[in-house]
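Colleagues,

For the teaching module next term, I've prepared a clean inverse folding example: a structure given as tokens, and then the sequence designed for it. I'd like students to try predicting residues themselves before seeing the answer, so please don't circulate the second half yet.
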């Protein structure tokens, strides 16, 4: 497949360039002529972007990674059609056996991916080492104190865990951060009552990300900058941001982009099963979620994930937060990929994953090449 005449995002800039995709990989970039018999796609007037990388996503299109392999497979297939090249299915609070079962489903899809789907890069565990006071839509009764014993009880030697979100102020959390780092697992802070000093100490121990900045954590105050203040100020930390226009005010999106830049913000969907589906009543971890105007809330009004898709997050950062596209695109592609060491994703270059997201001049999604 040759994608011709588009504005391709290469080396941090938009360039008029053709992109050849062969055998699931980017084969060539430049001024290219079609080979005999080769399929072509005219991308005149379109932006040609690397496929998106979503490192925090629970569910999509009625499929939820907590429900096992078949649902992870459906997520993979559905997400590809929204321009996502790779994702990290994210578990939520559940009992030990349920968590293990969910991880087994994620592992199974990694081991035997669908013929056409977004790649599963591993699992992101968003629970259970969280602060009850900031549980958000996580189930309080499933939260436990951080320990490697509890971790090993849930994971049981599976190799799929790539990220874990925890509350770093909890007793035992720093040791878990150090141990997980030694095992190659990225740790992130959220659902936490941490003060700024706790976040800097956690970064000393190896923590590298804040999960959904500003959401389910202490607020930024000028004498106690809390989790978001420390995350924005600490150059060792990348911040995950839900750019749906509901979780964060556009000014906050702009502040995060200005503080951290293209390499310091990872756009995430944090989506639940209603993403890609109309308003209505849905499920999150056994709790009823009511989706109205795209906002997903529990009966008590607490936000319960989002219905965001990555291309809409990109559009919101450009249109609502007024951030330059050259700064926004890495936030949805190379920055999240690099943040977890996922090679071959997030850039248009020979050898990289052959998934391209197309967007029009108004930053509306215009299709995927895969
Ligand atoms: Zn969360």
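(Answer key — instructors only)
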């Amino acid at each position: 497949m040759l994608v011709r005449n588009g504005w391709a995002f290469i080396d941090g800039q938009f360039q008029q360039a053709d992109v050849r995709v062969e055998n699931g990989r980017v084969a060539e970039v430049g001024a290219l002529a079609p080979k005999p018999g080769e399929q072509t796609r005219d991308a005149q007037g379109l932006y040609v972007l690397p496929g998106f990388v979503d490192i925090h996503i629970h569910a999509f299109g009625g499929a939820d990674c907590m429900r096992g392999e078949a649902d992870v497979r459906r997520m993979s297939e559905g997400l590809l059609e929204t321009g996502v090249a790779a994702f990290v299915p994210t578990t939520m609070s559940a009992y030990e056996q349920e968590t293990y079962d969910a991880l087994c489903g994620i592992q199974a899809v990694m081991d035997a991916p669908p013929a056409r789907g977004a790649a599963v890069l591993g699992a992101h565990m968003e629970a259970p080492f969280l602060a009850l006071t900031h549980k958000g839509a996580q189930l309080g009764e499933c939260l436990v104190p951080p320990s490697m014993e509890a971790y090993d009880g849930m994971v049981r030697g599976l190799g799929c865990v790539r990220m874990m979100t925890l509350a770093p102020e909890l007793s035992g959390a720093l040791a878990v951060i150090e141990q997980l780092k030694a095992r190659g697992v990225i740790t992130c802070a959220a659902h936490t009552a941490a003060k700024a000093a706790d976040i800097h100490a956690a970064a000393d121990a190896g923590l590298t990300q804040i999960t959904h900045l500003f959401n389910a954590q202490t607020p930024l105050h000028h004498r106690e900058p809390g989790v978001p203040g420390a995350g924005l100020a600490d150059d060792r930390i990348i911040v995950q941001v839900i750019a749906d226009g509901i979780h964060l005010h556009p000014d906050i999106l702009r502040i995060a982009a200005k503080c951290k830049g293209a390499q310091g913000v990872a756009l995430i969907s944090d989506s639940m099963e209603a993403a890609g589906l109309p308003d209505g009543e849905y499920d999150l971890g056994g709790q009823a979620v009511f989706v109205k105007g795209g906002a997903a809330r529990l009966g008590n009004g607490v936000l319960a994930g989002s219905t965001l898709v990555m291309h809409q997050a990109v559009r919101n950062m450009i249109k609502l937060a007024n951030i330059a596209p050259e700064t926004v695109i890495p936030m949805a592609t190379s920055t999240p990929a690099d943040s977890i060491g996922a090679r071959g994703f997030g850039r248009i270059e020979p050898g990289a994953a052959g998934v391209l997201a197309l967007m029009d001049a108004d930053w509306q999604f215009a299709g995927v090449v895969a």
